[in-house]
Amino acid sequence: MSYNPDSAQTRRMPLKHRLLALVVALMWGLNFLAIDASLQQFPPFLLVALRFTLIAVPTLLLIPRPQVPLRWLIGYGLGFGTLQFLFLYWAMAAGFPPGLASLVLQSSAPFTVLLGATVFRERVSARQLAGLLVATAGLAVVGWQQAAQAAFAPFLLVLAGGLGWAIGNVSNARAAAGAARRPNPLHVAMWMSVVPPVPMALLSLVVEGPEAIAASFAPGPSFWPALAGLAYTVLIGTLAASGAWTWLMSRHPAGTVAPFSMLVPVVGLSSSALLTGEDLGPAELAGAALVIAGVLWGSRVPPVTSRRPAASSEQERERDAAGDGSQAPAGRG
Question: pTM of the full predicted structure?
Fold first, then answer.
């Protein structure tokens, strides 16, 4: 049976699929702790280069390049892969807590809406605007608390990472919309990983220096936990979780699957509090609730009416691209 996004039946995820979505949220939420463990050994820019090199090499050897416009594929890699993780890893290396990072990175959702509206003249619904304002208020509360704790600069770095993710979102959507036929989203994501290694390796060489790079490979107390964290990030946080998420998105409307990604900061905050002792005050918890509620409300898809004119293949492709891009999974890390 072919997938029909307007079918009422497809809007109800089977229990096994809902459990899989919960497992993906768990894998992505724990990914921030894995990144934190790796940053105890490797400098941040080198770590980004290592992460994507381990994905890029087998991609170049085994995965055919998806037939999408090259400029948007590069834009996806520069935004999602390079800028997002450059700033996220930099902030976490500067001491920004992993749980809070999983939350602040949700700024990618309102940034995506703003970029789509201002750069590509996309229509912003009242629901999206309300969600954007609520999420922004929550981020302002968290930022105010971080400024009071003299940690405002790392907070701004994570916000910059969210903006990078948003640039990747809109580039990904344009790449899919500009393709002759709908590409495999997992292949697009893997080819995106080909973009970051070279610029991040050069940045690491210039900023962190050859001595710091060489020293990071010297065995020590944090060496093996750091390698385990890197392996988790590549194998579980990126390949397994993204593959499962792509599988779910191919079988259900984006608006049905996407809300499960808002469990990522919940897992990130709770696991970091449990395992690292990260502590959030009442104001930060209130800000977290606003961010999660705002993003959830803004990404919620209204019920589909049973009768509407049939869409052309071009309209369907653009709608699917918007679903894969603007409703990208949140907080993967």
Answer: 0.84
